[in-house]
Amino acid sequence: xxxxxxxxxxSTVFWHYLDGTYSQLHKDTIEPNYxxxxxxxxxxxxxxxxxxxxxxxxxxLNKHDAWIVIASEELHGSSPISGGDxxxxxxxxxxxxxxxxxxxx
Length: 105
Description:
Layout: E1 3-4, E2 13-17, E3 34-44, E4 52-54, E5 57-59, E6 66-70, E7 76-78, E8 86-96, H1 97-104
Antiparallel strand pairs: 1-8, 2-8, 3-6, 3-8, 4-5, 4-7
């Protein structure tokens, strides 16, 4: 099986979003025939917002909730934060066509 090294794997990635901020809706770019998959954990939750948005669906999250996004295929981001800040732990992998099919089907 072909794997590609994802440059952020091997190091801990924490995203710290301040009050009033959000993550824009976007898709991550990747080479053809590969998929960028990320697993995220909400370590700190603001009073309002900071929820995951994936393909126009808002997922209400609580502290310690985890979610997976196929970042290269799904439009994703987060709702605006109010009443505190948000900390996300995120780790990812780049998988080829065969590996992603094993996960999805």
